[in-house]
């Protein structure tokens, strides 16, 4: 799993990442139009997207979106419902027996808050989801978050802070923290 990252946008590293994003976008667009029953076709495309075979008993219902794919680590018996997005630039680990509802979004990248630096850098921090977590429909998990074992993320929640094991997280109201 990657640690917190800062990448200059006009760099060779960023160019390589941008090329990977274009390739994965092409692969996911093909995945998302396959007939639902084409298990072999889905498995082949997911292997290209993730850079490895899916672990045993992982279920992914398309449409499925990721921007990089190679930094998405799925354990056994993970269930991913339709229309989920994994922006995995800085790494996403999903633990065993985790259930992910439809339209859940994982975001590991962003930009500095400072307006002068916003277009110069891409920031990133990994997301780590422990075992047996349930993430409800439409939840958003932000960079750097760790979610503890057996936790439940309510539908529509925006998770910006770590979640302790065996806890319920709710809410998505935005608040102004500072102005400039």
UniProtKB/TrEMBL annotation:
Its EC number is 2.3.1.-. It comes from Streptacidiphilus jeojiensis. Keywords: Acyltransferase, Repeat, Transferase. This is Sugar O-acetyltransferase. The lineage of its organism: Bacteria, Bacillati, Actinomycetota, Actinomycetes, Kitasatosporales. It is an enzyme of class 2 (transferase). GO terms for molecular function: acyltransferase activity. The keyword Transferase applies. It comes from the Bacteria.
């Amino acid at each position: 799993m990657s640690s917190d990252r800062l990448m200059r946008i006009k760099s060779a590293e960023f160019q390589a990442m941008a090329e990977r994003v274009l390739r994965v976008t092409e692969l996911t667009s093909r995945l998302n139009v396959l007939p639902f029953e084409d298990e072999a076709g889905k498995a082949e495309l997911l292997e290209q997207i993730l850079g490895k075979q899916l672990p045993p008993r992982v279920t992914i219902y398309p449409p499925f979106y990721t921007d990089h794919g190679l930094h998405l680590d799925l354990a056994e018996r993970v269930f991913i419902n339709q229309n989920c997005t994994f922006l995995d630039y800085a790494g996403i680990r999903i633990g065993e027996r985790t259930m992910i509802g439809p339209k859940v979004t994982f975001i590991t990248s962003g930009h500095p808050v400072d307006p002068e630096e916003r277009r110069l850098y891409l920031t990133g921090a990994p997301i780590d989801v422990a075992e047996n977590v349930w993430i409800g429909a439409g939840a958003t998990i932000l960079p750097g978050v760790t979610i503890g074992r057996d936790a439940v993320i309510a539908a529509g929640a925006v998770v910006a802070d770590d979640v302790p094991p065996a806890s319920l997280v709710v809410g998505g109201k935005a608040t102004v923290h500072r102005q400039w």
